[in-house]
User: Which sequence fits this backbone?
């Protein structure tokens, strides 16, 4: 029987541990860790994500600072806000929600964030540290995927992991994290030849391409662990206003073959916010010169 990996339950467990860590931090330091989230524009999906992040931050007992800026915000205006947040002692973590409007250079903004407050792990210094195996703030979604994989499989050493997608947000850091766990890692992308054959050889498949149900059931090696990072909305069926949410994996087919698989929704999604809270707690400890809790 295939196991459906419950990301919601795993995320609640992490969030409970973070909340305990927050209470201890408050007792020692006399303030709560603070997370600032910046949203530029009114993209509906980003607006929902930012709302959920603010709510989860408060539920963990942290301070939440949400900055909503208009779509026409200039790069200079955004950089000025980032500078203010860098200098604000109450702010331990800064997240600028992506994507940003076209007039703003994303890299310039991400690299303006103080690396010690970079709870997204997107700053070039944190990405570089992860790549060379130094302690770093690690991107939340791949770290959440790794957490689910280790819960499921324990030791990943020697396993063949296929990461489909090479984005800076998921694919590349995911590959680095798996490599650090001594997995043998293949990164596939749009120019990869014979992806189904690569997948059939993989003990672990992490799909992060943003293409609805692209990974088919007959690509999956029997017993493999499948982590689906995709969130895609299908066109609405007749008579419905909203289409169904699906991942990058054809779930029913793949579940017939896999040993364990994450559903969409309720798999990887909830882990991203849990790891954002974890990163904020760790950043707060490091900024105060305290040893960060192991989470
Ligand atoms: N947009 C989609 N995923 C993410 C994320 O993990 N962090 C930020 N900042 N923006 C995103």
Assistant:
């Amino acid at each position: 029987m295939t196991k459906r990996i419950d990301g919601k339950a795993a995320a609640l467990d992490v969030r409970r541990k973070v909340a305990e860590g927050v209470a201890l931090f408050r007792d020692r330091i006399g303030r709560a860790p603070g997370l600032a989230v910046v949203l530029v524009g009114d993209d509906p999906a980003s607006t929902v994500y930012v709302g959920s992040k603010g709510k989860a931050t408060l539920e963990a007992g942290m301070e939440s600072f949400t900055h909503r800026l208009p779509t026409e915000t200039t790069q200079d205006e955004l950089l000025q806000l980032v500078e203010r947040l860098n200098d604000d002692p109450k702010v331990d973590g800064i997240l600028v929600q992506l994507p940003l409007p076209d007039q703003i250079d994303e890299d310039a903004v991400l690299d303006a964030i103080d690396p010690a407050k970079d709870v997204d792990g997107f700053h070039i210094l944190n990405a570089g540290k992860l790549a060379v195996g130094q302690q770093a703030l690690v991107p939340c979604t791949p770290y959440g995927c790794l957490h689910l994989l280790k819960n499921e499989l324990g030791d990943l050493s020697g396993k063949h992991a296929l990461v489909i997608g090479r984005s800076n947000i998921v694919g590349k850091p995911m590959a680095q994290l798996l490599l650090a766990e001594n997995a043998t890692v293949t990164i596939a992308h749009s120019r990869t030849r014979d992806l189904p054959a690569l997948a059939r050889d993989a003990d672990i498949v992490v799909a992060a391409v943003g293409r609805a149900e692209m990974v088919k059931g007959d690509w999956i090696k029997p017993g493999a662990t499948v982590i689906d990072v995709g969130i895609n909305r299908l066109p609405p069926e007749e008579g419905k206003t909203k289409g169904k949410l699906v991942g990058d994996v054809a779930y029913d087919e793949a579940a017939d073959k896999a040993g364990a698989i994450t559903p969409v929704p309720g798999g990887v999604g909830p882990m991203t916010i849990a790891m954002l809270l974890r990163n904020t707690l760790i950043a707060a400890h490091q900024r105060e010169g305290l040893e960060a809790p192991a989470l």
Remarks:
- The chain has two domains: 29-115, 140-270.
